[in-house]
Design goal:
The chain has 111 residues and is mainly β. Helices cover 9% and strands 42% of the residues.
Length: 111
């Protein structure tokens, strides 16, 4: 499955369904299932762990209207990766990387 490392607290906010837009400097053509992983730094609770499964449904240039759902200030020249069907999973350790990367692991969605 494709995975993306996201800094805390954003990774946990995504897993809780409180953040549905990720702001990134690069565009991606990928659409589909995405494993949301908490980056190892800073070292906080659940750092370096997979936390949620989502679907990346859209990627486009950021607008000022995206600030509320992305929980950040407007950043001209950045892109928003829009997530849908976010579900928390049973966390497991993941060695993250920059950008999209592959993870092979059994995913256990929490109800």
């Amino acid at each position: 499955m494709k995975a993306l490392s996201v800094r805390q607290p954003d990774a946990s906010l995504i897993a809780q369904g409180k953040k549905t837009i990720i702001v990134k400097p690069k565009y991606t053509y990928y659409r589909g299932p995405l494993l949301i992983c908490s980056s190892a730094k800073p070292a906080l609770k659940l750092s370096g762990s997979a936390l949620a499964k989502a679907y990346l449904v859209e990627c486009r240039a950021m607008s000022q209207n995206d600030c509320v759902l992305s929980r950040c200030l407007y950043k001209p020249g950045q892109y928003v990766w829009i997530l849908d069907q976010i579900k928390p999973i049973k966390p497991f350790l993941v060695k993250g990387k920059g950008g999209l990367f592959e993870v092979e692991h059994r995913i256990e969605v929490l109800e």
